[in-house]
Design a protein that fits this description.
Layout (H helix, E strand, L loop, with lengths): L8 E10 L2 E11 L4 E5 L6 H8 L12 E4 L7 H5 L2 E5 H5 L7 H6 L17 H13 L15 H13 L5 E5 L7 H16 L3 E6 L11 E6 L2 E7 H4 L2 H8 L5 E4 L2 E4 L1
Parallel strand pairs: 3-7, 3-8, 5-6, 6-7
Antiparallel strand pairs: 1-2, 1-4, 8-9, 10-11
Helix pairs in contact: 5-6, 6-7
């Protein structure tokens, strides 16, 4: 059962510097295993720093009362942790627009790279089978032999999700996943996310767009200036009263069949 698994993250008063800037300021947050959670906030609120702290690209300040646990442990070998977390981000996608096939990109997830280097990466028959299965799971098997720079942005994003799934992670972190996608590709992305959620895959969605928040997400964490300002059920978080001060403007919210839009 989910309740018996260690939480994805359990943080108390976590502070992180980015250069001379305090990007996370005493942040306290707990996300359980298998939860579907959205982290919502304006640009510069600390969302990217939060992700980089989860993936151990950044480390918190050593301050009294601060503690940080990821999947039940305070310390990780970074390659071991990457086998337990899937990351889907626009930044990662920009590294993949090269002469790499869809299958090679998915296989690279086993090695935390963005391509396969002959003589350095040893791809086993089991890895090959699991990579093909991950593509089929995203209805993207036809992209196995296509080069990523020949794919549409939506197709490339599906391959990137397959890459995140290939080692059966405990959770997938989606970092602004709809950036650079057209309306059709956004719809495809959200359909893929909904399918994963229905299959029980833990999802952490980090975004500043309400439209990215799929109906299966039932909890929303609002961030501003490196802090959590609200942590509520979705229906309570996505209101004009909550979002207007968050974004510093009068926000109108429309809900339609479990989906939200704001302007």
């Amino acid at each position: 059962m989910i309740d018996h698994q260690p939480p994805l993250i359990a943080w108390e008063r976590v502070s992180v510097m980015r250069g001379e800037t305090l990007a996370l300021d005493g942040l306290t947050l707990r996300i359980g295993a298998g939860e579907h959670v959205a982290i919502l906030g304006p640009n510069g609120c600390g969302k990217s720093t939060l992700i980089k702290t989860i993936t151990r690209e950044l480390y918190p300040l050593n301050r009294p009362g601060a503690s940080l646990s990821i999947l039940g442990r305070p310390d990780w070998h970074i390659l071991e942790l990457r086998n337990l977390l899937g990351i889907v981000s626009n930044d990662l996608m920009t590294q993949c627009t090269r002469d790499v096939t869809g299958l090679e990109l998915v296989l690279s997830g086993f090695f935390s790279s963005v391509e396969i280097w002959p003589g350095y990466h040893e791809v086993t028959s089991d890895m090959h089978a699991r990579a093909l299965a991950a593509l089929e799971r995203l209805e993207a098997g036809y992209l196995a032999d296509r080069y990523t720079d020949e794919m549409s942005s939506g197709e490339a994003r599906r391959v990137l999700i397959a890459r995140a799934l290939v080692h059966q992670p405990r959770a997938i972190v989606f970092d602004e996943p709809a950036n650079s996608l057209d309306i059709f590709a956004q719809a495809e992305l959200r359909r893929s996310m909904r399918s994963l959620a229905a299959q029980g895959v833990g999802i952490v969605l980090v975004t500043h767009h309400l439209g990215d928040i799929i109906p299966e997400i039932d909890r929303v964490v609002l961030m501003k200036e490196g802090r959590v300002v609200a942590d509520l059920p979705k229906e309570q978080a996505l209101t004009p009263e909550r979002l207007s001060p968050l974004f510093g403007m009068n926000v109108t919210v429309v809900r339609n069949d479990g989906h939200y839009q704001a302007w």
